[in-house]
Specification:
The complex is a heterodimer of chains A (113) and B (113).
Chain A (H helix, E strand, L loop, with lengths): L3 E4 L2 E5 L4 E7 L6 E7 L6 E7 L4 E4 L2 E6 L4 E6 L8 E9 L5 E4 L3 E6 L1
Parallel strand pairs in A: 2-11
Antiparallel strand pairs in A: 1-3, 3-8, 4-5, 4-9, 6-7, 7-8, 9-10, 9-11
Chain B lengths: L3 E4 L2 E4 L4 E8 L5 E7 L6 E7 L2 E5 L6 E7 L2 E7 L7 E8 L8 E2 L3 E5 L1
Parallel strand pairs in B: 2-11
Antiparallel strand pairs in B: 1-3, 3-8, 4-5, 4-9, 5-6, 7-8, 9-10, 9-11
The chains are: A mainly beta (113), B mainly beta (113).
C-alpha cells in the first residue's frame, strides 16, 4: 500500500518568514495530493491540493509543488502569521476502485510573533 | 448546508456501555467515511460507505459497527470498547467514492473508562 513520509515533524519560524514542509510517497499510482491544516481540538481542513497532471499550484500565501518523478511534494507558506500555527498533514490518494487517502505523520508549525 | 456535522462533541463511556456516534451531511455527497485519530497522529481510516453501502472495512474490530441509514446520515455504534479506543472520531464525506476531496466533520472526542 501507499506510504507517505513527512518532514520535519516540528517547525518554528518567525512571523513573516517562510515555512516549507516536504512529503514523499511510495505508490506511483497516487495522483491526488491534498494538504490539511488541523488546529488543536479542531477538524482537519483542506487548505490546498494538487493533482498529478500539475506541477505547481498557488493560493495567496500558500503554494504546493509536485515532482512526480521523484515522488516528492511540498507545501510552501510565505509571510507566515501566528494564525498559521497548527499541525499540517500531507496526503496521497489513488483514484480508481475506491479512493483511499493516506496521510503523512504531520508537521507542527509554530509561528513566533 | 456546506459542512459535515457530528454529535456528540464529547462522549465518556464505560467498557460495558453501548453508545452511538452520529454524522450528517446535506451536501449531496455519496461517500462517507469514519476515521480514528489519536493524539499527535494522523487520521486512520476505519470505514468507507459509498451509495449507502459499506465499501471498505479497514480490519476494524467488531466492537465498532457502522451504519448508513440514508445518504445523509452515518452512524458508528460502539459496544464493549477498551480504554485504548479513546480517541477523536472523525467523519468525512466526498462527492463520490472516487472523487478526491474529503470534507471532515468536527469530530467526537471519545473517552473510554
Amino acid at each position: 500500500g501507499e506510504n507517505v513520509e513527512q518532514h520535519p515533524s516540528t517547525l518554528s519560524v518567525q512571523e513573516g518568514d517562510s515555512a516549507v514542509i516536504k512529503c514523499t510517497y511510495s505508490d506511483s499510482a497516487s495522483n491526488y495530493f491534498p494538504w490539511y491544516k488541523q488546529e488543536l481540538g479542531k477538524r482537519p481542513q483542506l487548505i490546498i491540493d494538487i493533482r498529478s497532471n500539475v506541477g505547481e499550484k498557488k493560493d495567496q500565501r500558500i503554494a504546493v509543488t509536485l515532482n512526480k518523478t521523484a515522488k516528492h511534494f511540498s507545501l510552501h507558506i510565505t509571510e507566515t502569521q501566528p494564525e498559521d500555527s497548527a499541525v499540517y498533514f500531507c496526503a496521497a490518494s489513488t483514484r480508481g476502485g475506491y479512493q483511499k487517502v493516506t496521510f503523512g505523520t504531520g508537521t507542527k508549525l509554530q509561528v513566533i510573533p | 448546508d456546506t459542512e459535515v456535522t457530528q454529535t456528540p462533541k464529547h462522549l465518556v463511556m464505560g467498557m460495558t456501555n453501548k453508545k452511538s456516534l452520529k454524522c450528517e451531511q446535506h451536501m449531496g455527497h455519496r461517500a462517507m467515511y469514519w476515521y480514528k485519530q489519536k493524539a499527535k497522529k494522523p487520521p486512520e481510516l476505519m470505514f468507507v460507505y459509498s451509495y449507502e453501502k459499506l465499501s471498505i472495512n479497514e480490519s476494524v474490530p467488531s466492537r465498532f459497527s457502522p451504519e448508513c441509514p440514508n445518504s445523509s446520515l452515518l452512524n458508528l455504534h460502539l459496544h464493549a470498547l477498551q480504554p485504548e479506543d479513546s480517541a477523536l472520531y472523525l467523519c468525512a464525506s466526498s462527492p463520490d467514492w472516487d472523487t478526491d476531496t474529503q470534507y471532515f466533520g468536527p469530530g467526537t472526542r471519545l473517552t473510554v473508562l
